[in-house]
């Protein structure tokens, strides 16, 4: 987890961990009552190092250095349930249902010798009908022993109907009456991993439940009775030993309670962090307006109404002395950079420093290039700092930031994570475009920093995501685009007509136009993408001559810069590119965007790419080249692109087509950052948890009341105990 963040005023430090190793340090502060839950799972009976490792893969994922804790195991909740009371009889078993059947074994039909593809069948019947139990690659003598002809057996498994006949392939259980009576009637089903038997997990969970102490209640009793929630321990008992499928329903009281606990821990940690930051900030920054006036005078345009409104919001935040955490939402091309610069100017007028972080080096350089002349005219001392500034140059910049002789630094996120000292950093501006992932890292890393934060994004982020990543965040929007912008005409063209497209472009550049040509993501590999772009570059150069340029992710930063500059200056008029140009590249006189294999791109990405044109006063065109036949989703995406330029609508459609996980760029299933809570089931609980947390922090900011102390346990249980350190420090 990333925790270093250099955004600190000189002489001010994050509430550092002591010199003890983190684990001991935590253990020392952690209330003793939790000790049994914070032991490694290997302390449970029947869990050795091997199983501990398998549980680690299951519970914490990947190559965690240590076995998971007992608490992690308890919060691993079942995904379903086997209900052995579901015994409808053979003929009445629905297709696909998991049932238990009490059957009489009639005959064995082994696979013919030497033909392993034909399964071994055992025919059996009950009062309602006959069923085939089917086994592939079976151990014949084992099957003969477990299912003697004429005996009664209980079999559980999934029933499938095949040509009007029922069968069960590889039943989960085949037992006699005696053994059946030993089995639990209802058994939870967990997400599993290799090397971990269901029985072993069940036994470990039993041990974990037994070691779970009765914990003091951290939830509000009124809320609990309204929601019919039980206490934490009985809730976990219910979840791990459910009696009916209803007890595991996501909206049912047991899972809901745990989801609420998880949301509350999240919201409380965020609120405590913010409260702490507010206390830390405590300094109002009021500029005298002189730099802003100089910038305005140097601009070739006047700011739009919504840009001015956003700047006014920010000015108020900065003057308030409370810490700012503001999201600036504005579609591609809406002019967010100017708002960022004006915000920076305010704190610089007040004698402090500002930093602008871009997601890529290319973009950092471009920002620097746009901002430099404006900074110069306002007397703002600006520097750029990326991985590329090295040696003496880098040392000078770092010194300038440390002694305050640099007012504004433009760079990439990476640099800011590497530990740069500032003399007095008042404002961090994060230019995110649409990659939301970094926001969350920011939320984590901004702990304790006294710096105001402005996040600029082109994607309207769903409120649920904002809440869980930041707690409440203020939002400014830039709904209107700068005046004089022409709409972009978007067309879809089958790839077969590539030659015609090339001819069209030839004609357009003869009249002075500039065009981007974006090559598709072939694989998740920059190398392969670069090769595709390289091939297209060679083709186009053969057709159109030396006016064709190339930029892709495998090129050195200096080469990329050079290619961009030549395109900007007009020495090249067609820029063949991979998606490196997706984010923020600004060449206002480029008016044609060709996207090859547009069907392979996501909506948000297509919208970002298209946003590279339509930035000047000339009409622009976007050609989406596709390879048919199109799947349904791809067809919808391209149709939406043709229909609208409205980023908010596109984001909504994108959500509809892809779901929240994709928007986050995480592609993981479920709700990111949460083990139990799911936005689709529990969004209403999130709002309640937010209000609850706010009230708690208002009334008991140090969490010292009896409920407050219980809430500290909650934070530990859900791994949000970072926030507890802030309590001690505060
Ligand atoms: P984005 O919101 O996508 O980051 P930019 O900040 O890159 O947008 O702005 C897009 C283009 O619009 C830039 O060329 C910028 O100089 C120009 N621009 C910004 N504000 C205005 C304005 N008020 N009037 C005209 N052009 C503007
Ligand atoms: Mg931008």
UniProtKB/TrEMBL annotation:
Please give the InterPro entries that the UniProt record associates with this protein: ATP-dep_DNA_helicase_RecG, DEAD/DEAH_box_helicase_dom, Helicase_ATP-bd, Helicase_C-like, NA-bd_OB-fold, P-loop_NTPase, RecG/Mfd, RecG_dom3_C
Recorded catalytic reaction(s): these are: Couples ATP hydrolysis with the unwinding of duplex DNA by translocating in the 3'-5' direction; ATP + H2O = ADP + phosphate + H(+)
PROSITE patterns recorded = HELICASE_ATP_BIND_1, HELICASE_CTER
Tell me the superkingdom of the source. Answer: Bacteria
A Pfam family of this chain: DEAD
Q: What is its EC number?
A: 5.6.2.4
GO biological process terms on file: DNA recombination; DNA repair
Q: Which NCBIfam families match?
A: PRK10917.1-2, PRK10917.1-3, PRK10917.2-2, recG
Family stated for the protein in its record: Belongs to the helicase family. RecG subfamily.
Its name, as the record gives it, is ATP-dependent DNA helicase RecG
Source species of the chain: Kaistia nematophila
Write the gene name: recG
């Amino acid at each position: 987890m990333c925790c270093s963040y250099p955004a600190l005023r000189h002489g001010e430090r994050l509430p550092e961990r002591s010199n003890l190793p983190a684990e001991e340090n935590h253990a020392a502060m952690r209330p003793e009552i939790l000790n049994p839950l914070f032991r490694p799972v290997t302390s449970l009976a029947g869990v050795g190092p091997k199983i501990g490792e398998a549980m680690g893969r299951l519970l914490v994922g990947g190559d965690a250095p240590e076995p998971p804790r007992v608490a992690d195991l308890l919060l691993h909740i079942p995904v379903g349930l086997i209900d052995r009371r579901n015994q409808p009889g053979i003929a009445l078993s629905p297709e696909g249902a998991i049932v238990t059947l009490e059957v009489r074994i009639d005959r064995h039909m082994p696979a013919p010798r030497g033909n392993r593809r034909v399964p071994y069948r055992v025919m059996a019947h009950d009062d309602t009908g006959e069923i085939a139990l089917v086994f592939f690659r079976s151990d014949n003598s084992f099957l003969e022993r477990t299912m003697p002809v004429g005996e009664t057996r209980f079999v559980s498994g999934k029933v499938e109907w095949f040509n009007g006949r029922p069968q069960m392939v590889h039943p989960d259980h085949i037992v006699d009456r005696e053994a059946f009576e030993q089995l639990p009637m209802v058994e939870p089903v967990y997400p599993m991993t290799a090397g971990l038997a269901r029985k072993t997990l069940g036994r470990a969970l039993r041990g974990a439940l037994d070691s779970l102490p009765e914990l003091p209640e951290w939830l509000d009793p009124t809320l609990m009775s309204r929601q019919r929630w039980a206490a934490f321990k009985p809730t976990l008992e219910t979840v791990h030993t459910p009696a009916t499928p209803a007890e595991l329903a996501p909206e049912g009281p047991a899972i809901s309670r745990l989801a609420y606990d998880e949301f509350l821990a999240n919201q409380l940690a965020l609120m405590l962090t913010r409260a702490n930051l507010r206390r830390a900030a405590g300094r109002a920054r009021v500029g005298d307006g002189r730099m802003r006036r100089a910038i305005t005078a140097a601009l070739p345009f006047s700011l739009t109404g919504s840009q001015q409104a956003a700047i006014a919001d920010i000015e108020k935040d900065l003057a308030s002395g409370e810490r700012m955490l503001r999201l600036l939402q504005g579609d591609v091309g809406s002019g967010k950079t100017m708002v960022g610069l004006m915000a920076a100017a305010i704190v610089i007028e007040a004698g402090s420093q500002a930093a602008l972080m871009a997601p890529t080096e290319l973009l950092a350089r471009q920002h620097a290039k746009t901002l430099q002349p404006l900074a110069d005219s306002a007397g703002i001392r600006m520097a750029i700092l990326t991985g590329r500034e090295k040696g003496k140059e880098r040392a000078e910049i770092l010194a300038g930031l440390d002694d305050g002789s640099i007012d504004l630094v433009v760079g990439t996120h990476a640099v800011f994570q590497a530990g740069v000292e500032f003399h007095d950093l008042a404002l961090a501006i994060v230019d995110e475009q649409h990659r939301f992932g970094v926001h969350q890292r920011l939320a984590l890393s901004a702990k304790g920093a006294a710096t105001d934060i402005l996040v600029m994004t082109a994607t309207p982020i769903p409120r649920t995501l904002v809440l869980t990543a930041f707690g409440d965040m203020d939002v400014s929007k830039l709904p209107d685009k700068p005046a004089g912008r022409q709409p972009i005409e978007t067309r879809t063209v089958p790839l077969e007509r590539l030659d015609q497209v090339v001819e069209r472009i030839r004609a357009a550049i003869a009249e002075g136009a500039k065009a981007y040509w974006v090559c598709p993501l072939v694989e998740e590999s920059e190398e392969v993408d670069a090769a595709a772009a390289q091939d297209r570059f060679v083709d186009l150069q053969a057709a159109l001559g030396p006016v064709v340029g190339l930029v892709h992710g495998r090129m050195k930063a200096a080469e990329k810069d050079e290619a961009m500059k030549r395109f900007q200056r007009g020495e090249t008029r067609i820029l063949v590119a991979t998606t490196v140009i997706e984010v923020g590249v600004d060449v206002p006189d480029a008016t044609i965007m060709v996207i090859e294999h547009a069907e392979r791109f996501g909506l948000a990405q297509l919208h970002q790419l298209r946003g590279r044109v339509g930035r000047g006063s000339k009409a622009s065109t976007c050609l989406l080249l596709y390879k048919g036949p199109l799947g349904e989703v791809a067809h919808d995406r391209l149709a939406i692109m043709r229909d609208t330029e409205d980023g908010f609508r596109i984001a909504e459609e994108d959500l509809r087509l892809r779901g929240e996980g994709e928007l986050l760029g995480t592609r993981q299933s479920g709700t990111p950052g949460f083990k139990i809570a799911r936005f689709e089931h529990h969004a209403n609980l999130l709002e309640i948890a937010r209000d609850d947390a706010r009230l708690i922090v208002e009334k008991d900011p140090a969490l010292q009341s009896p409920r407050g102390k219980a809430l500290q346990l909650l934070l530990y249980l859900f791994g949000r105990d970072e926030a507890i350190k802030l309590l001690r420090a505060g």
